[in-house]
Each structure stands twice: as C-alpha cells, then as structure tokens.
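Long-time lurker, first post.

We've been arguing in lab meeting about whether pyridoxal-5'-phosphate would sit comfortably in this protein at all. Half the group thinks yes, half thinks no, and nobody has a model to point at. So I'm putting the question to the forum: if I give you the sequence and the SMILES, can you give me back a predicted structure of the complex? Inputs are below. Any interpretation is welcome too.
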Amino acid sequence: MDSKPIQTQQLYGILPSEKKGVGKLATLALDMRWSWNHAADKLWRQLDPELWEQTQNPWLVLQTVSRNKVEELLKDPEFKEKLGALLEQREKAASSPAWYQEKHASSVLTQVAYFSMEFMLNEALPIYVGGLGNVAGDQLKSASDLGVPVTGIGLFYQQGYFRQLIDQQGNQQAIYTFNDPGQVSIVPLRTPNGEWLRIAVQLGSFTIWLRTWEVQAGRVKLYLLDSNDPANLPVHRGITNEIYGGGPEMRIKQEIILGIGGWKLLAAMDLKPEVCHLNEGHAGFAVLARAEDIMKEKGCSFQEALFISRPGNVFTTHTAVPAGFDHFHPQLMENMLGPFARQSLGISMEELLALGRRDPANQEEYFNMAFLALRGSGAVNGVSQLHGKVSRQLFSDLFPRWPIDEIPIGHVTNGVHMPTWDNEFSDKVWTSACGKDRWRGDLLSMESKVCQLTDEALWGLRNVCRENLVHFIRSIFARQSRLGGRVDHLNLNVNDMFHPQTLTLGFARRFVPYKRPNLLLKNKERLIHLLNQESFPLQLVLAGKAGPGDERGKALIREWIQFIDENRLHHRVVFLSDYDMGIAEQLVSGVDVWINTPKRPWEACGTSGMKVLVNGGLNLSTRDGWWAEAFSPDLGWALGNEESMAEGELSDVQEAEALYDLLEYQVIPEFYGRNDNGFPLKWLERIRNSMSKLAPVFSANRAVRQYTENYYLPAAERYKERNADKEGLEMKIFDRQKHLREHWSEISFGEIKTETEGKYHSFQVSLLLGEIHPEWVSVEIYSEGSHQGLPKMEREEQVGDHGYQVYKGKVPASRPIEHYTIRVVPFSDGMAVPLEASQILWQR
Ligand SMILES: *Cc1c(COP(=O)(O)O)cnc(C)c1O
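Top reply:
Settle the argument with this. Predicted structure of the protein with pyridoxal-5'-phosphate, as tokens:
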C-alpha cells in the first residue's frame, strides 16, 4: 500500500516549486480518510475557518489560502507538530496489519476490483445520488479499516446529481453545479513515467478517450473515469456529465465507460484482481472486458474466456422490482457494441444479446444488464435477507423448473460505515465503552461492552445530539428559505423553530411513491394533533429529492411544504432542501426516531435507518429491507405485521392509522415518561439494545467481512483453480458444460421402482442418458423443503437392458413416499450448479 507523501509535481493545482510542507499538507488533504477521521479538522480550520465550514473540503482550502498564510502556519511549532503526528498516524494506519492481514494472511486473494456507478465518500466529492453510492462508499471505507485489498472503480461526473432548491410554492427546482476536478480531492492518475493515463474505449464505430483520476481513501484507492477529454467530440465529452442523466443511450454509454473502460484502466495499471465485484448490473460490461483480456492471454474463444473468468466475478443485485433493471433495445446494443462484439470478442451480436435475455432465442427481447451480470458471475447476492428471497423470485425465469429456494442467489445485508455516521459526542461515548479502534476488528465483544453504558451517558448523548440538530435546522432553514424566496413570505423568527427537548422524528429519503413519503399526511388532523399535544409535543424534520423528471415525486414534496405553510407548523415541522450526505449526517445524528415507510417488499435494504443506531436514535419502520431482520420489540417499532402484508396487504390509510397509533400510544408516552432523575428509562433501555445489538450487525464492517469470507475468498480460490492452465481441468469442465447443454434433452426416465421396507423408502430408477456421460449427472431424491444435501442415488456398475443406467438410493421413511420425487441435475464438481449449468429433469 502506497502511503508515501504525494510528490507535488504529480498534482494538479500545486506547483512543483512549493515548499515541502505543502506537499505534506496535500498528502493529508487528498486522503479521504479525513472525512471519517476528524483528527485533521483543526488544521483545515486554522488555514481558513470560513471556507472549511462551508465546503468541508481540505484540498480546496489548501489550494485557496495564500501561500504566506500556509508558510506562516508551517513555521508554527504547534501546527508543525500536529501535522507531523497526523502523517505518522496515517502512515501507521496504512501499514500496520489489519483484520485481513491477521486473519487471511496466506489467502490467494490479492485484489478485488469494486465497480459502481456511484460512490458516496463525502459531500465534497459529489458523485452519488443516494443509497447505492452510500453502500459503495461505506464498504470502501470499511475495506480500508479492515485491510481488505479492494480498489474502487467509478465515474467522475462533471455535474453529478442536481442540487435542490424549494421555491415559495414548494416546487423543487433543479440546479446543476460544476465539479471542478482541480478542486475536489482527486488527482490525475499517472503512469510510472509521469504520463496522465488515458484509456481508449470503443463506442460503436467511434473510439473515445477517457481521463483517469485517483482518490485515496485511507488504505484503498478509488479510480474514476470521465469522458471530458478535449480530444473527444463534444457529444462524447458530455457523457459523464450527469449521474444517471439522459435516456437509455446515455446510460449505455456510461455503463460501457464504467465496465469496459474500468477494466481497461486496471489492466493499464497492471492490476490483476482475482475478484471483480459488480455493485448492481450497471457494471455488467466489465465481464466482457475481462473475458477479452483472457482471450488475448490464452488465445481462446470468448465463451471459453467467459467461462474461465466467471468464478472471479461477484454480482450484487440491489433491485426489488423487474422494472429496476437497466435494459437496452437490441438496436441500441448493436449501435454501441456491435463492432466491439465482432472485432474484439469474435462473437455475433446475437451471441452477445443472448447473455442479457431471459429467452436467448427471442429476437424482440431487450438486453438486461442484470442478466448479463448474473450469467457472467460465479456468485450472486441480494442486499438483505428478504431481498435475497425476492431476488430468487425475480431471477427464477433464468432457472426454469428449479425450486425457488435453490435459485443461486444468497444475501449479504448492507451495513453502514459507523465512523462516518457517528458524531463527536457519540464517538466519545463509544470510545469510552469500546476503545478507539473498535470498528477495525471483528466486533466480538462490542455488544456486552455497549450494554454497560449508563443512563446518564446515553441520555446526555441524546440531549446534546438533539440540541445540535435544532441549531443546525435553524441556521440551515434560515439560509434555505432566503434562497427560495420564502423568508419574507413566511415572516418567521427562526429562533422559535424547534425545541431541544422535544421528541424529534426524522424522515429523509428519495421522494418516490414506493417509499410513501406522505404516509404521515394521510390524516392531517391527526398529525397536527400529535404535533401539538400540550405537554408531549412532537417535531418532525424532513428532507429528500424527487428525480428531476419525476412529477409525482415533486408533487409529494409540494404537499409537505403546503401542509407546513397552510397550518403554520414551522415551529414543529421543517423540510430541509438539498438532501445530501452532509444533511444526512446531521439528521441521523440528532433525531430520536427515524421513520421509514416503504411498501414491502420494495425496499431492497435501506441504509439510512442504520445510520442513527450509532448515535442512539431509534427506528420505526415497515418490516421491509434490513428492518425485517433487525426488528425486535425491545429496540424499536415495526409498522404492519409480516403475515397480513404477505396476503391481503393493509391499505395506506390503514397503515397510516397504525403509524399514528404507534406514535400516540407507544413512542410519545415512552419518550416523555421520566423517572425521578428525569430519565425515560424504557426509552434508554431501547437505545441500549439498539446500539449494542444492532450497530455491530448493521455495520459495513460486518458486511465487508462477510463479503470477504463468503464471496471474495471462495471466488479467488475458484478463479485460480479454473485459471490454472488452458489444457487442464477447466477446459474439461467447459466441454462438459457445453455437452450437457447440447445433449440434455436426450435424457429420459425409464422404469421407477419404489418400496418401503422398515425405516426406509428405497428407490430404483432406470435412466436413458443418450450422449451424456453417466459421470456428468447427479440423480437425487428430492422432497420439498429439504433441498440441502439431497440424498444422491448410486449408479449400478451393470448397465441395464436397452442401455438404461440403473440408480439406487434410499431415504428414511419419516415422510410418506409420495413426498419424494427423483430428479437429474448436472454433476457439480468444479462447476457452479445451477448458475453455470441450469439443466434439470424431474421424474414428475
Ligand atoms: C443514507 C443515504 C441514502 C440512502 O437511504 P435509504 O434509507 O436507503 O433510502 C440516500 N441519500 C443520502 C444522502 C444518504 O445519506
């Protein structure tokens, strides 16, 4: 890991003649570690307090302040000492063995490439929209904490996502700002000879140039690509302007840049990751570029190369509805990838399209990126337990006739990077309980230590957090409503807004209908009543963006703004505009209860609720996504019950009433119920449970360890095995896979004899296998609900009459014999079944 000070001549914006101390400051400023480890904040504040508060961007601060000021401070012994100490700490954090080095020192895994369309590391590098970027950013940071060798690959957007302004009438206005690459914490990625690395990719019949950038995030790096290279045509320069901008044509171009450009970048840097992790189907084209590399290296065909690389690809799906998958018209695919498919991969367009179709033979079908990613990967997972289940259903068409619980999709529930989402006060409380390095190991003793936290400590924490949020709300609201022209119009004294001791609820998310951001407004009278109860008031802080073209989402925002204005509720309810990571940090820090109301099972996981855990906030949510597995009545509240929602679900009106009931009869009384010392004991017990039981489990630390041990390490092993040599085993498996595909239909059942004798049912079946080698299939006795380790039948040495193979097997007679049926599936040695060979034949 490279932790030497960055040389000033490598930088963009710092001149080679600069003093050495500036280089040291630059090294610190360019390491995104400052954004979750606030140790260096004081230095930046000293350089330029105002700019630092406004931007939270040390790199910008360093470039902006006068050189005199920098030199003056560099002469100050205290400043110099602090700088030296911080560099030393950074060095130590980068080079000392972490969890991975200690636990998996001898593993074959040296590098994971993590592809994602968005990364949310800090609000000062705005290349994200929301949840997906949060998952990617937080996992990258935890990989750094744990020493897992991950390298991120993403796009550098010239504009990123829009910024939100709310006008007088409550309309959302979209504002686009420019991400000046010289002023965000990225530097040009240079090859060893000092050249700025540029990558060429093909877009249809054009070759376009991509610029490359490097972000240092603690021990790990994130590489970014953009198309704004002056050597490109203007239409190509704009491809990476806006995240998820434009229509399908823009999207496919961005995805080609991410997947194919990203893989080429790794190759150009001589990085050879064993594992390529596709964070959502957007990155699916990476499997094509990886296969192309192997074709060149081994001189094999595309299909062979895809086969060889497949075990090294891991695909994480984040979508809970089919409409969420990116899919492209076949003609668009031809326009963008036709020449690449034919010339570089040596395959026809039909062959390429087949990889992204449910039915490869259907010429009409669009190309689905998630199908490509799944077909190109050796392991697939959803992002919560429930979402794993939903995904098995969503992808079941690719595995016809397989039982739903054997569809090869597992799950790793997302987690958040706790050091990012804690605040200075909760950090102190946690440090007193679990020490400074608490999020860098395996968290084994965390629960019992956090349980020891006293009522004083927890209530003190909540009060100071809430008070800070109230101050933040007042100052931000004053500024924001001036901007939107709402201040005169409202005639408000912001110091009357919100109260530090009032129960504070938070609700912030994308304003899309499935999240039901207006559920609380279903019965406005009742909400107003709850907000204004004399001795037990409520206050509510809201934030969220609707997609720039999403009129329904924008109407939902307007409804809230109008509700607040018309009922003069500004002292109790606020909608903060421009929800981003900075606002999220403040909200999850200060709220007492985080509310989430998605329509089950549309929320694949959801992460914002996890962010309040570390700060002693509690959750009240639908049993969807992560909350379906996290909820227990002693640590939060659940809306709706699982059973009824599975069948005839409750209407929104019914659920809203249930939400009001929960607030009125449980949440509010518990918060305001105090003992003689002024503590809400029941509430504090919930906080203790929520912090101690949930924070470790729903941390990115846990998620990254799980990815490492359950996905990356096995993937690296299998990739190495299969990649061993071209003439060897892997080609035999490839041939077998092909053979099975071509000849499977020749298998048929002959006579089946069953008999129950004592404690066993025994089975004898005759099978005609046609061209298929008897060793390449497995004959299993199946019964519903017990697919794990199905009993396999033994083949008799002697081939029966008319070429029938005879198989025998038995099972304990604990269930009636009619519960059993025989099936034939490919034999799985070295091959992922059914992911790589989805054939199956049932007796009935
Ligand atoms: C955490 C976060 C999200 C994701 O929240 P969900 O609960 O998954 O909707 C979105 N945007 C921002 C700015 C966040 O911080």
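For your lab meeting: DSSP finds 31 helices and 27 strands in the chain. The two ends are 57 Å apart (CA to CA). Whichever side wins, do check it experimentally.
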